[in-house]
Amino acid sequence: MLVSVRPRPPLERPSPLSRRQIVLRREALIEPVSGGPALAEAEALLTEFHRRLADLFQDVPALAQTFPAQPGWSLEPGLLAPEYQPPAGSLLLARVDARPVGLVAVRPLPEASGCAELRRLYVRDGHRGRGIARELLERAIGEARRLGYRELRLETSPRMPDAEHLYRQAGFQPIPAYRARAAELDRHYRSLSLPLP
Protein backbone atom coordinates (compact mmCIF):
# COMPACT_ATOMS: atom_id res chain seq x y z
CA MET A 1 0.00 0.00 0.00
CA LEU A 2 1.36 3.35 -1.00
CA VAL A 3 1.08 6.21 1.44
CA SER A 4 1.33 9.73 0.22
CA VAL A 5 3.61 11.74 2.43
CA ARG A 6 3.59 15.45 2.16
CA PRO A 7 6.99 17.01 2.21
CA ARG A 8 7.55 18.90 5.44
CA PRO A 9 7.91 22.63 5.04
CA PRO A 10 11.45 23.82 5.58
CA LEU A 11 12.12 24.89 9.15
CA GLU A 12 12.42 28.59 9.54
CA ARG A 13 15.87 29.67 10.46
CA PRO A 14 15.94 31.14 13.95
CA SER A 15 16.29 34.85 14.14
CA PRO A 16 19.70 36.05 15.30
CA LEU A 17 17.92 37.56 18.30
CA SER A 18 16.53 34.19 19.37
CA ARG A 19 20.03 32.75 19.48
CA ARG A 20 21.32 35.41 21.84
CA GLN A 21 21.65 34.38 25.43
CA ILE A 22 19.33 36.32 27.65
CA VAL A 23 21.12 37.59 30.75
CA LEU A 24 19.35 39.50 33.45
CA ARG A 25 21.75 42.33 34.12
CA ARG A 26 22.12 43.57 37.65
CA GLU A 27 22.65 47.27 37.94
CA ALA A 28 24.66 47.15 41.15
CA LEU A 29 27.08 45.01 43.08
CA ILE A 30 25.65 44.55 46.58
CA GLU A 31 28.01 43.68 49.41
CA PRO A 32 27.69 43.27 53.17
CA VAL A 33 29.41 45.89 55.32
CA SER A 34 31.33 44.87 58.42
CA GLY A 35 33.61 47.84 59.02
CA GLY A 36 36.54 49.74 57.56
CA PRO A 37 36.24 52.02 54.50
CA ALA A 38 32.91 50.47 53.45
CA LEU A 39 31.40 51.48 56.80
CA ALA A 40 32.60 55.06 56.30
CA GLU A 41 30.93 55.04 52.86
CA ALA A 42 27.70 53.71 54.40
CA GLU A 43 27.84 56.47 57.04
CA ALA A 44 28.17 59.08 54.26
CA LEU A 45 25.13 57.63 52.48
CA LEU A 46 23.15 57.64 55.73
CA THR A 47 24.01 61.32 56.22
CA GLU A 48 22.63 62.02 52.72
CA PHE A 49 19.49 60.04 53.57
CA HIS A 50 18.97 62.09 56.75
CA ARG A 51 19.36 65.33 54.77
CA ARG A 52 16.74 64.05 52.30
CA LEU A 53 14.34 63.32 55.16
CA ALA A 54 14.94 66.81 56.55
CA ASP A 55 14.07 68.27 53.12
CA LEU A 56 10.90 66.15 52.93
CA PHE A 57 9.73 67.47 56.29
CA GLN A 58 10.93 71.06 55.94
CA ASP A 59 7.34 72.24 56.56
CA VAL A 60 7.76 70.88 60.12
CA PRO A 61 11.04 72.57 61.18
CA ALA A 62 11.19 71.09 64.69
CA LEU A 63 10.96 67.62 63.17
CA ALA A 64 13.30 68.27 60.21
CA GLN A 65 16.05 69.32 62.63
CA THR A 66 15.97 65.94 64.39
CA PHE A 67 16.98 63.86 61.35
CA PRO A 68 20.65 64.92 61.09
CA ALA A 69 21.07 64.09 64.79
CA GLN A 70 19.88 60.48 64.40
CA PRO A 71 22.45 57.78 65.17
CA GLY A 72 24.53 56.20 62.43
CA TRP A 73 25.56 52.63 61.78
CA SER A 74 28.49 52.59 64.19
CA LEU A 75 28.95 52.95 67.91
CA GLU A 76 32.45 54.30 67.38
CA PRO A 77 34.44 55.05 64.22
CA GLY A 78 35.04 51.93 62.17
CA LEU A 79 32.94 49.64 64.39
CA LEU A 80 29.54 48.53 63.11
CA ALA A 81 26.79 48.44 65.75
CA PRO A 82 26.02 44.84 66.85
CA GLU A 83 22.38 45.05 65.74
CA TYR A 84 23.58 45.37 62.12
CA GLN A 85 26.05 42.47 62.33
CA PRO A 86 25.30 38.77 61.78
CA PRO A 87 23.76 36.79 63.32
CA ALA A 88 21.43 39.61 64.42
CA GLY A 89 21.32 41.84 61.35
CA SER A 90 22.97 43.01 58.17
CA LEU A 91 24.06 46.24 56.48
CA LEU A 92 24.23 46.14 52.68
CA LEU A 93 25.97 48.60 50.37
CA ALA A 94 25.25 48.89 46.63
CA ARG A 95 28.02 49.90 44.26
CA VAL A 96 28.03 50.93 40.61
CA ASP A 97 31.45 51.13 38.97
CA ALA A 98 32.96 50.63 42.45
CA ARG A 99 31.26 53.77 43.81
CA PRO A 100 28.72 53.53 46.65
CA VAL A 101 25.23 54.45 45.45
CA GLY A 102 22.78 52.89 47.89
CA LEU A 103 22.23 50.99 51.10
CA VAL A 104 19.74 49.15 53.27
CA ALA A 105 19.88 47.43 56.64
CA VAL A 106 18.11 44.66 58.51
CA ARG A 107 18.08 44.63 62.29
CA PRO A 108 16.20 42.66 64.96
CA LEU A 109 13.02 43.96 66.58
CA PRO A 110 13.54 42.78 70.19
CA GLU A 111 9.92 43.45 71.14
CA ALA A 112 8.66 40.99 68.48
CA SER A 113 10.10 37.48 68.52
CA GLY A 114 11.28 36.21 65.11
CA CYS A 115 10.83 39.64 63.59
CA ALA A 116 13.34 41.95 61.88
CA GLU A 117 13.04 45.52 60.69
CA LEU A 118 14.08 46.95 57.33
CA ARG A 119 15.96 50.23 57.80
CA ARG A 120 17.08 53.11 55.62
CA LEU A 121 16.60 51.88 52.06
CA TYR A 122 18.26 54.66 50.08
CA VAL A 123 19.63 55.19 46.56
CA ARG A 124 21.53 58.29 45.52
CA ASP A 125 20.16 60.80 43.02
CA GLY A 126 21.38 59.96 39.54
CA HIS A 127 21.01 56.22 40.19
CA ARG A 128 17.28 56.07 40.86
CA GLY A 129 14.90 54.49 38.39
CA ARG A 130 17.42 51.78 37.44
CA GLY A 131 16.15 48.99 39.72
CA ILE A 132 18.84 49.40 42.38
CA ALA A 133 16.34 49.96 45.20
CA ARG A 134 14.50 46.79 44.13
CA GLU A 135 17.80 44.85 44.11
CA LEU A 136 18.63 46.14 47.60
CA LEU A 137 15.16 45.26 48.87
CA GLU A 138 15.30 41.73 47.41
CA ARG A 139 18.72 41.17 48.95
CA ALA A 140 17.56 42.51 52.34
CA ILE A 141 14.55 40.16 52.30
CA GLY A 142 16.92 37.30 51.50
CA GLU A 143 19.21 38.32 54.35
CA ALA A 144 16.30 38.41 56.81
CA ARG A 145 15.33 34.88 55.74
CA ARG A 146 18.94 33.68 55.96
CA LEU A 147 19.20 35.08 59.48
CA GLY A 148 16.14 33.06 60.49
CA TYR A 149 13.49 35.77 60.77
CA ARG A 150 9.85 34.91 59.98
CA GLU A 151 8.63 38.49 59.55
CA LEU A 152 10.13 41.71 58.19
CA ARG A 153 8.60 45.03 59.19
CA LEU A 154 9.21 48.59 58.09
CA GLU A 155 7.94 52.10 58.52
CA THR A 156 7.69 54.59 55.70
CA SER A 157 5.95 57.83 54.81
CA PRO A 158 3.36 58.84 52.21
CA ARG A 159 5.83 61.61 51.38
CA MET A 160 7.92 58.88 49.71
CA PRO A 161 5.46 57.44 47.14
CA ASP A 162 8.13 55.56 45.17
CA ALA A 163 9.16 53.67 48.30
CA GLU A 164 5.52 52.95 49.18
CA HIS A 165 4.96 51.56 45.67
CA LEU A 166 8.08 49.38 45.85
CA TYR A 167 7.07 47.91 49.22
CA ARG A 168 3.54 47.14 47.99
CA GLN A 169 4.95 45.42 44.90
CA ALA A 170 7.22 43.30 47.11
CA GLY A 171 4.20 42.08 49.08
CA PHE A 172 4.47 44.17 52.26
CA GLN A 173 1.03 44.51 53.88
CA PRO A 174 -0.25 47.39 56.06
CA ILE A 175 -0.11 46.74 59.81
CA PRO A 176 -0.84 48.79 62.94
CA ALA A 177 1.93 51.04 64.25
CA TYR A 178 4.54 49.09 66.20
CA ARG A 179 6.28 52.10 67.76
CA ALA A 180 5.28 55.55 68.96
CA ARG A 181 6.13 58.41 66.61
CA ALA A 182 5.33 62.12 66.48
CA ALA A 183 1.98 62.65 64.75
CA GLU A 184 3.67 64.99 62.23
CA LEU A 185 5.69 62.07 60.86
CA ASP A 186 2.53 60.55 59.34
CA ARG A 187 4.06 57.09 59.18
CA HIS A 188 2.82 53.98 57.40
CA TYR A 189 3.76 50.57 58.81
CA ARG A 190 4.09 47.42 56.73
CA SER A 191 4.99 43.78 57.21
CA LEU A 192 6.15 40.91 55.01
CA SER A 193 5.76 37.31 56.15
CA LEU A 194 8.85 35.17 55.60
CA PRO A 195 7.60 31.57 55.61
CA LEU A 196 9.96 28.67 56.06
CA PRO A 197 11.35 27.42 52.71
Automatic annotation (TrEMBL):
Gene3D superfamilies: 3.40.630.30
Keyword Transmembrane applies: no
GO molecular function, one term: acyltransferase activity, transferring groups other than amino-acyl groups
N-acetyltransferase domain boundaries: 51-197
Entry-linked Pfam families: Acetyltransf_1
Family matches, as InterPro entries: Acetyltransferase_Enz (IPR052777), Acyl_CoA_acyltransferase (IPR016181), GNAT_dom (IPR000182)
Keywords recorded for this protein, A-Z: Transferase
Name this protein carries in UniProt: GNAT family N-acetyltransferase
Organism the protein comes from: Arenimonas fontis
